Amino acid sequence: MERNIAQIALFAAMIAALGLVPPITLTFGVPITAQSLGVMLAGAVLGSRRGFAAVGLFVLLVALGLPLLAGGRGGLGVFASPTVGFVVGYPIAAFVTGLFVEHVRLRSPGLTAGLGAVVGGILVLYLLGATGLAYVAGKTLIEAFALVAAFIPGDLLKAGIAGMLVQALAKVRPQTLEWLRLPASNGNARL
Q1: Which of 26, 55, 169, 175 could cross-link 91 (Cys pair, CB 3.0–4.6 Å)?
Q2: pLDDT band at 11 (very low <50, low <70, confident <90, very high)
Q3: What is the CA 49 to chain-centroid distance, rounded?
Q4: What is the number of domains present in the chain?
Q5: Distance (Å, rounded) from C-alpha 58 to C-alpha 14?
Q6: Mind listing the pLDDT tens digit for each residue in 19-54?
Q7: Domain that holds residue 92
Q8: Cα angle vertex 54, ends 62, 130, to 5°?
Q9: What is the pTM of this model?
Q10: CA angle 17, 156, 138 (to 5 degrees)
Q11: What is the CATH number of the domain that holds 161?
Q12: Which keywords annotate this record (predicted)?
């Protein structure tokens, strides 16, 4: 129990620390940040439930006013900004990433984590982020998706980094990745 709480707090802190990397803000108000890498890693390392809890804790701290988002943003105003879909989508993205690694097994834990990061940390997060952007900015969903497409190369790089870090972790501390010890539940234990 204490280990789970410590890991959840550690990953929430890691996501906050990644906010210290200076963001690049695009013209439509959504910054390119390193924090989505932390979201991907939370799901890929901790799994679905604990990854969701870690990122949910981070979002709760942001909502309470702590300036933890890239650029020192925090507070309820974040939930009325163009980034709302991304911020609200962070815990869901971590959950889906974790769900992927728990249920799909490829030959390499790093490849499993990298693909999980693409599914949760890019596909799911973009769907939620573009929806929030469209709503707040008064754009169509197609227009919002066209705007967030600028993030794809960087986020693919982050998913690759997440996969490499998980692969390294699987070699030096495999017990940290509890999902490696779970049987894959999709019927094809290793692809």
Answers
A1: 55
A2: very high
A3: 13
A4: 1
A5: 9
A6: 988 777 666 667 788 999 999 999 999 999 999 999
A7: 2-22+30-179
A8: 60
A9: 0.90
A10: 80
A11: 1.10.1760.20
A12: Cell membrane, Membrane, Transmembrane, Transmembrane helix, Transport
